[in-house]
Amino acid sequence: MKSVKPLFIATTETRLNNGISNTEVDINGYSIERHDRNSRGGGVAIYIKDRLKYERKLELEEPHFETLCIEFKISKNLPCLLICAYRAPKQPVEPFFDYLDDVTRETLRSDKQIIIIGDLNCDCLDESAAQTIALKEFLNVYKLTQLIREPTRSTASSESLIDLLITSSPQLFRSTGVLQSGFSDHFPIFGSLISVRQKDSKHRVISTRKVDLNANHECFQNAISSISWDTMNMFDDPNDKLLIWEKLFTPVMDIYFPVRRKRIRKNSYPWIDSSVLVLMRNRDQARKKALKTKSVDDFNIYKRLRNCVTSRLRKAKSDFFQRKLDDCHGDPKAFWKLMKKVLPWKN
Question: What residue ranges are annotated as transmembrane (predicted)?
């Protein structure tokens, strides 16, 4: 999220209800559309990047199915319907796909593209399961393609592919895949559209050389002395001489004083200190080990570290803003400036 600003962030099992306002789940730079279950669990939501024109298609949504439909344009003459969907494990398969069948048929008849993303609880790794068979029949009827190929949920005893990205036009996607994340045993999935330009606010990378002549002076001097500098005399143009000099000199520098690249983090969260970063790295290493070994003990270690990171992040963020509030005491202007960061209200 810090290095890439996606057009959409679709989430399932949001567990939101009427008592939770949009402000409480706001992501700066995005508006939100929700379809809450208003009971235990469930619910879907889509965050839409600011300034992207879209239309919520409430007429395509049904109260009995946890779906959310928005229409946008991939390009000027290419409208698309995006559906974020969640089918609970105990929800009957047939009526759910009957609903998707109706929406898909009407969308394609209108010469629109369709993208369906979400947790359908149809394991594409288990081709004999009734849910998967129903999914494949649905895909075949409308010539749709399911683009995710890797497992999206992994435990010590099983793997499954239930978080799906379905489209009528796979050629519109530059890339798709699964992101390895330590937040949950469900891994996020992604898709990058070819026709939509996105500006990535990536971390800045700087290149440096640590020139320590005391350590490598003799070896470096010998290497420089062995270069056939007379080669430059074959050229009259100063630019050509410079080019030859660089081609002769740079490889020697790379050997004795190699380039080192350092990433300068952008928009880092100020409440994340080195101790939290170490804990996050330990969590990620534990996750990789658990996925490799499939050991119950390794998964339990990973889960403990994941929960510890979550707890530490919440406390660190709370302590950070509490200190900021204390600093704002008696300064209304600074207080409201801080409030806009904590609760980024939209006009």
Answer: none
